[in-house]
């Protein structure tokens, strides 16, 4: 399988709150990473092109890559978007609807010092090549919830976005990258046609469109590792089955949830 890097970013900021700092990239580093992608010969394509190829549609151009951003931090609009527009790069932005500002009090999703996008800032992003996708309503670990709560998070997020934007929204991302076969079935039933995980791996045309592998770019992702990713090296290529460690980690988190002492995931 040809490796397709699907890059996952969160915040791009010089002064992030401490809770998201390990997953934050500075604006200068982010600009350098975009330049590294372009200089390496990668062709940044919309997520839908990867999904179409995974579903048997047209093959991807050689050396394709995809940009994604999770949660909906305010710096996407102020810092990320101008750079994407300047370079003509498409991206997918997955927003946690309960954390967005501007439609009544925001839910207590992220710590109070978090700076999140407003609903109105989602309007018109498609004109700049940015697809808006869903990231649940309150950012839970979906694979530890009851079926009813999963449906509320997955389907409810989609309804809220479609009611506001006035168009269909089809791309979803699992909070913390966590899913399970049962969760993925609910995502499919809710009408999402793709869903991204993490997996710290390359995606491919053969990857599962409801569990697309991504490479998370963190504060400690150094230049050499990032450059290797742009060359298709130093990470496995999906699809590959869940290993015992992943299954055991899910069982541990479910046990803690049942005991009402849930594991506090960060990203």
Keywords:
267 residues, alpha/beta, TIM Barrel, eight-stranded parallel sheet, two-stranded parallel sheet, 10 strands, globular, Polysacch_Deacetylase, signal, NodB homology domain-containing protein
CATH topology call? TIM Barrel
**Average residue-wise pLDDT:** 95
Structural class by helix and strand composition: alpha/beta
Over the alpha carbons, how many angstroms does the gyration radius reach?
A: 17 Å
Instruction: List unreliable stretches of 5+ residues.
Output: none
- What is the name of the CATH architecture? Alpha-Beta Barrel
Number of strands: 10
CATH class membership: Alpha Beta
SSE pattern, N- to C-terminal: EEEHEHEHEEHEHEEHH
Basic shape: globular
Please give the largest β-sheet. 8 strands, parallel
Protein name: NodB homology domain-containing protein
GO molecular function: hydrolase activity, acting on carbon-nitrogen (but not peptide) bonds
Subcellular location: Secreted
Main location: secreted
Describe the 3D structure.
32% of the residues lie in helices and 16% in strands. The chain has a single domain (6-242), classed as Glycoside hydrolase/deacetylase (TIM Barrel, Alpha-Beta Barrel). It has seven helices and ten strands. The chain has helices spanning 27-39, 47-54, 75-87, 147-165, 181-189, 223-230, 244-258; strands at 6-9, 11-12, 24-25, 43-44, 64-71, 91-95, 130-134, 171-173, 194-199, 212-216. It is globular. Strand 8 (171-173), helix 5 and strand 9 (194-199) form a beta-alpha-beta unit. It has 267 residues and is an alpha/beta fold. The strands form two sheets. Strands 1, 4, 5, 6, 7, 8, 9 and 10 form an eight-stranded parallel β-sheet that branches. A two-stranded parallel sheet has the order 2-3. The model has no long low-confidence stretch (mean pLDDT 95). Pfam families: Polysacc_deac_1 (PF01522). GO terms for molecular function: hydrolase activity, acting on carbon-nitrogen (but not peptide) bonds. One of its GO terms (biological process) is carbohydrate metabolic process.
């Amino acid at each position: 399988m040809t490796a397709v890097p699907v890059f996952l970013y969160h915040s791009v900021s010089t002064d992030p709150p401490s809770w998201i700092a390990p997953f934050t990239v500075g604006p200068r580093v982010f600009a350098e990473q975009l330049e590294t992608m372009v200089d390496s010969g990668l062709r940044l394509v919309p997520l839908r092109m990867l999904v179409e190829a995974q579903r048997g549609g047209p093959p991807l151009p050689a050396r394709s890559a995809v940009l994604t951003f999770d949660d909906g931090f305010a710096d996407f609009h102020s810092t990320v978007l101008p750079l994407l527009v300047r370079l003509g790069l498409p991206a997918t932005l997955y927003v946690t609807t309960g954390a967005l500002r501007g439609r009544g009090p925001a839910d207590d999703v992220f710590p109070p010092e978090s700076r999140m996008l407003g609903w109105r800032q989602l309007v018109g992003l498609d004109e700049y090549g940015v697809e808006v996708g869903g990231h649940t309503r309150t950012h839970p670990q979906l694979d530890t919830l009851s079926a009813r709560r999963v449906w509320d998070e997955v389907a409810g997020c989609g309804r809220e976005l479609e009611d506001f934007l006035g168009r269909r929204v089809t791309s979803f991302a699992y909070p913390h990258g966590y899913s399970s076969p049962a969760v993925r079935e609910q995502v499919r039933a809710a009408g999402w046609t793709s869903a991204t995980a993490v997996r710290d791996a390359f995606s491919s045309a053969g990857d599962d469109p409801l569990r697309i592998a991504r490479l998370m770019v963190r504060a400690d992702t150094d230049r050499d590792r990032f450059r290797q990713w742009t060359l298709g090296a130093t990470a496995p290529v999906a699809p590959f089955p869940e290993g015992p460690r992943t299954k055991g980690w899910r069982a541990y988190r479910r046990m803690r949830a049942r005991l009402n002492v849930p594991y506090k995931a960060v990203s």
